[in-house]
Amino acid sequence: MTGFNILIIEDEAKIARFVQLELEHEGYAVHVEHDGREGLEEAISGTYDLVILDVMLPSLNGMEVLRRLRKVSEVPVIMLTAKGDVMDRVMGLDSGADDYIVKPFAIEELLARIRRALKRKQPSLEKKGVLKAGELTLDPARHIVTHGDEEIELTRTEFDLLHYLMLNKGIVLTRETILDNVWGYEHTGDTNVVDVYIRYLRSKVDEKYNKKFIFTVRGVGYQLRDDE
Ligand code: CA
């Protein structure tokens, strides 16, 4: 096993099955979805290291799946496009695809692109080092948050919440996503706790320094930005 989980979203059963078997043979753990909407739900779950995404899909096309996925996730995505579909290719890369491959493709070509995309993914793990947003700095290793030179005292949960928001700087996060990632799956249902802790964080991080980092996105959730 390579330890990598790959999601294939492809409605053509023959292609999906073929790619799945080849990837499993290479040691990847593979899950297949045949429908755009269900594929998106699965992709958002955060358990995958890479997504292979077809463009023409039932219920939600691949471009729309990618657009929605990119609001909450930076998981590498390789698009499968029909031959000569130039617009789709350009749109795919513009909208946050990491790579694309044109059907029909040689499996070796796909495997090479998967390896490349997974390798590129590594530096983002290093980003888990010191995070910055304007004057705000968070150092996970030393468990320290500073604003300029001044240290901000946070509780464990406040720290974890701020860490998650900063890791996803600029991305709008739903309360459910925040709850799952900061509090874990065992803490189900009540998202009020997220609002409560956002309020604590704001009083310590935003209001004290008169600089807004944590924004409410009406009807969706929260976003950390460092607007100048
Ligand atoms: Ca298709």
Could you characterize the architecture of this molecule?
This protein has 228 residues and is an alpha/beta fold. It has 2 domains: 5-124, Response regulator (Rossmann fold, 3-Layer(aba) Sandwich); 128-224, Winged helix-like DNA-binding domain superfamily/Winged helix DNA-binding domain (Arc Repressor Mutant, subunit A, Orthogonal Bundle), CATH 1.10.10. 42% of the residues lie in helices and 21% in strands. It contains 8 helices and 12 strands. The chain has helices at 13-25, 36-44, 62-70, 86-94, 107-126, 156-167, 175-183, 192-206, and strands at residues 5-9, 29-33, 50-54, 77-81, 99-102, 131-133, 136-139, 144-147, 150-152, 173-174, 214-217, 221-224. A 5-stranded parallel beta sheet has the order 2-1-3-4-5, with helices on both faces. Strands 6-7-8-9 form a 4-stranded antiparallel beta sheet, covered by helices on one side. Helix 6 crosses helix 7 (175-183) and helix 6 (156-167) crosses helix 8. The longest helix has 20 residues, at 107-126. The model is unreliable at 123-127 (pLDDT under 50). Bound molecules: calcium ion (CA).
CATH superfamily of the largest domain: Response regulator
Query: Tally of extended strands?
Result: 12
The termini sit apart by: 46 Å
**What proportion of the residues form beta strands (DSSP E)?**
15-25%
Biggest beta sheet attributes: 5 strands, parallel
H/E element sequence: EHEHEHEHEHEEEEHEHHEE
Backbone structural class = alpha/beta
Named CATH topology of the largest domain: Rossmann fold
Counting copies of identical and different chains, the oligomeric state is single chain
Query: Would you identify the regions where 5 or more consecutive residues have pLDDT less than 50?
Result: 123-127
Mean pLDDT rating: 86
Given the C-alpha coordinates, what overall shape results? elongated
- Identify the strand order in the major beta sheet: 2-1-3-4-5
